[in-house]
Hints:
Radius of gyration: 16 Å
Number of strands: 8
Strand content: 15-25%
CATH architecture: 3-Layer(aba) Sandwich
Oligomer: single chain
Helix content: 25-40%
Number of domains: 1
CATH superfamily: SMI1/KNR4-like
Strand order of the largest sheet: 1-2-3-4-5
Number of helices: 6
CATH topology: SMI1/KNR4-like
Order of helices and strands: HHHEHHEEEEHEEE
Mean pLDDT: 88
Largest sheet: 5 strands, antiparallel
Structural class: alpha+beta
Distance between the termini: 30 Å
Low-confidence stretches: 90-96
Amino acid sequence: MSVDESWEKIERWLDQYAPQEQPLPGPCTRSELDDLYNVLGVRLPEDVEQSLLRHNGSGSTDVLPSKYTLCSVSRIAEEHLGTLEYKLENDHYGWGDSRLIVPIGALGEMQLVVDTQTGHLGSWDVEETGYCWFESPAWASLSAALEVIGNALASPPPWIAVMGDGAEWRAIDMDTDFPGTLVWANVRG
């Protein structure tokens, strides 16, 4: 399934079940992507680029479980430069490869990162000393993750996204704290 097809399914669910959610941002421009690539010194995988050309991040919408928002091109640049600076100041190992690993999403202080050479998704936390790579096929790329989410949200309720490694997430549209928004709850938690 293409990135656009996955986004269409996610957008339909948001329109129908999450009317209080902030609208998803519009697309970034090719010029903004070129500026980002000048900052990064490396290109993003094609599926990440396609996603940014559809939605320049996800705004405040937690698109991916557990509660990851996707970054805009400007935030990707800021987060990437901030991560490299932090690692230099704190002498973290893995600095040599850090320029190839780019943050594309966030969950608080934790970053959703992509390996620009393989497209594989993982996380990096300021409190940790390295990267954690998600091992399931659902995290093999952004397009794989969006496909799982799109298919889950296009199915009849309950909307369950199986992200692998025993992680199953249920989309909730009537959360008591955030009614009319997309909230992900761990099925086992």
